[in-house]
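Input record (one chain):
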Amino acid sequence: MYFPLTGWAQVQLVITSLVIMATNIASFQRFESQKPAGRTEPWKKTTPLVEAIEQPLIQPAVPATRHSDSHASSSRPSVPDVPAPPRPMSAPVPISRSSYRTMPLPSRKKLVKVMDEDEPLGKLISTVSWFFHLLCRMLSIASFAHFHPLPCLGVVIAHYATMLGYLLRKTRCPDITTVTRQMCLAYVYVFALIEHWTKFTKTPVFYSFYFILVGAENLAMGITWYMFDEWEGFWYNYVFIFIFVSLALSILSAFVYFNIFKPKSKLYDPNTLSRQISTMK
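The corresponding structure, as predicted from the sequence alone:
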């Protein structure tokens, strides 16, 4: 069957957009957990050229300073060498009982849990997983909205309300700026997960809940229109097959990433970690 050239162009544009979205989502997958180790936002990374430009262009005139110092020293009047006074004998200082009360007691160090940044191969596997996740999600929502627009809107709103409730629950005493930001982030969670502005707690449980919820929604929407609605054309068969294939590939890629390539969390002393970050910068 002939497929118009504009149709192929639209397919290519959609795939390109999904690849870009998957790459951005993978870069922010565990951002807040890796931020204490010195990781910066992708849009704030500077190139070596910019760093070289930021260096001072004019160095201080060291020879002139040395010359002025020597001239000043030569102009000073000479003083005869006077022997230094004898060093006083150090006697032991008795420690009173009250000094024990003022001595600082050792305290337990508060360690922070930091996750290392992903390796290139791990980022690639994560991007592949999110690409098939987005493809499955897009096909499920678009196909279900074609047959049942109002029920599809209800599913999306229910998912949005669930994610917004989770985000607001994690934010204590939120202000209007925080609420607005969480509302925008909850819209992103309709399609994918990013750890930005909010650090996940009990991450394996939350990820499992999210993927089970989204998978159940995608399967329910796909099976509903495929089994109970009237449709014609082979493209609907392709869409239905792609929903299941994309879901399976997404789960398989995520399983490989979380079991092989996901960086492990480590405990660091905040003071030592801040010194390491300052030396890196």
